[in-house]
Design brief:
Blueprint lengths: L2 E2 L2 H18 L4 E10 L2 E10 L7 E7 L20 H11 L3 E5 L19 H16 L4 E9 L1 H13 L3 E5 L6 H9 L5 H15 L12 H4 L4 H8 L3 H5 L6 E6 L7 H10 L4 E5 L13 H7 L9 H11 L14
Parallel strand pairs: 1-9, 4-5, 4-6, 6-7, 7-8, 8-9
Antiparallel strand pairs: 2-3, 3-5
Helix pairs in contact: 1-12, 3-4
């Protein structure tokens, strides 16, 4: 495993391969409605098909959004604005000749009708949906290979789905290595008073053991409400590091050095669990894939303003990986 901590160095290393790729870039793409019919309703999404698909099969990346009410474009109804991170990433990849499909998860946005009552939802439902998308894409003759790329919580969903459906490759973007209860605990500790944090820890311990908590602390009800506890129990049971170790397909692990939600160490831990994986840290990129560096004001604004472009280095590396131009392009010479 080699970690590219300097995004400029990564860009230089990819230069030769990407120059050749740019000459072949289609310069355009078309958007299509995408749909996956499930027993409980239809999941709706968007496919971007590069012009190059008219000349032969192209790779396709299934983009899976992160946690909560995050839609196909990377936006959440709980935020006061939009960042359009996944839409911008999809468009940038399509301009490089890589098709993409992104979709609203069941119960979210255009796929709301396909969602079950909250108390009936489980983590494995999302995994099954993503795996079914992969199987459907495999049947489309326009696509030469299917790559699953998941962001944040979607990285773990995509990881399991990629193995389950036999994807050709897998990309983790801002994924965590520890079980979700450990990550949640680490995020809550600096945000809660000691007494309330202790109560939160007790709830987490119970859920981790598979036991529901009838009366969670009122001030934490939004997080631990009884109806969401079955989902949390199913999510906490999955260990990302153990799961990624089982993948035999090509694996790319991407992490932003300016991510204030997921520490860089998570990417390193995922890479350590799967030594064959390529781990790349893009120093100025934050959790919503924008190049903000250490600018606190830009960091905050990037979550709710779509005019911040996604990281060009992220696009470069993903396009190269999707077209199978690595491993040579992603090898890191000694001393970097």
């Amino acid at each position: 495993m080699r970690i590219l901590k300097n995004w400029l160095c990564a860009a230089i290393l990819l230069g030769a391969a990407l120059a050749a790729q740019a000459a072949e870039a289609p310069g355009g793409w078309t958007a299509e409605d995408a749909a996956l019919v499930t027993p409980t309703g239809t999941l709706h999404g968007t496919a971007l098909i590069p012009a190059a698909a008219g000349k032969g099969a192209v790779p396709v990346v299934l983009l899976h959004a992160g946690s909560g009410p995050t839609d196909r474009d990377g936006n959440s109804k709980g935020m006061p604005g939009t960042n359009d991170s996944l839409r911008l990433l999809a468009e940038a990849l399509a301009s490089r000749g890589v098709a993409t499909v992104r979709f609203d998860k069941r119960g979210i946005a255009a796929s709301t009708a396909a969602g079950a009552a909250e108390e009936k939802m489980r983590f494995e439902h999302y995994v099954g949906d993503a795996a079914d998308w992969v199987r459907q894409l495999r049947k489309d003759a326009r696509f030469s290979r299917v790559i699953v790329a998941g962001h944040s919580e979607g990285a773990l969903i995509g990881m399991l789905a990629a193995r389950q459906a036999g994807a050709d490759a897998y990309v983790s973007i801002a994924g965590i290595a520890a079980p979700a209860d450990k990550t949640l605990s680490a995020q809550l500790k600096p945000a809660l008073p000691p007494a309330l944090f202790a109560e939160s820890e007790a709830v987490l311990a119970s859920l981790k053991a598979g036991k529901r908590v009838d009366n969670p602390p009122p001030s934490l009800a939004a997080l631990y409400r009884p109806s969401v506890q079955p989902y949390l129990i199913s999510w906490f049971a999955v260990d990302p590091a153990k799961e990624i170790a089982t993948l035999t397909m090509p694996v790319l692990i991407l992490q932003g050095g300016a991510d204030i939600q997921v520490p860089v160490g998570e990417a390193a831990a995922l890479g350590a669990a799967n030594p064959a994986a390529k781990v790349i840290v893009i120093a100025p990129m934050n959790h919503v894939l924008k190049m903000v560096g250490k600018d606190a004001q830009a960091q905050k604004a990037s979550y709710v303003q779509p005019d911040f472009p996604v990281s060009p280095e992220l696009v470069d590396v993903m396009a190269a990986f999707a077209t199978a131009r690595p491993p040579a392009a992603l090898q890191m010479p000694a001393g970097h």
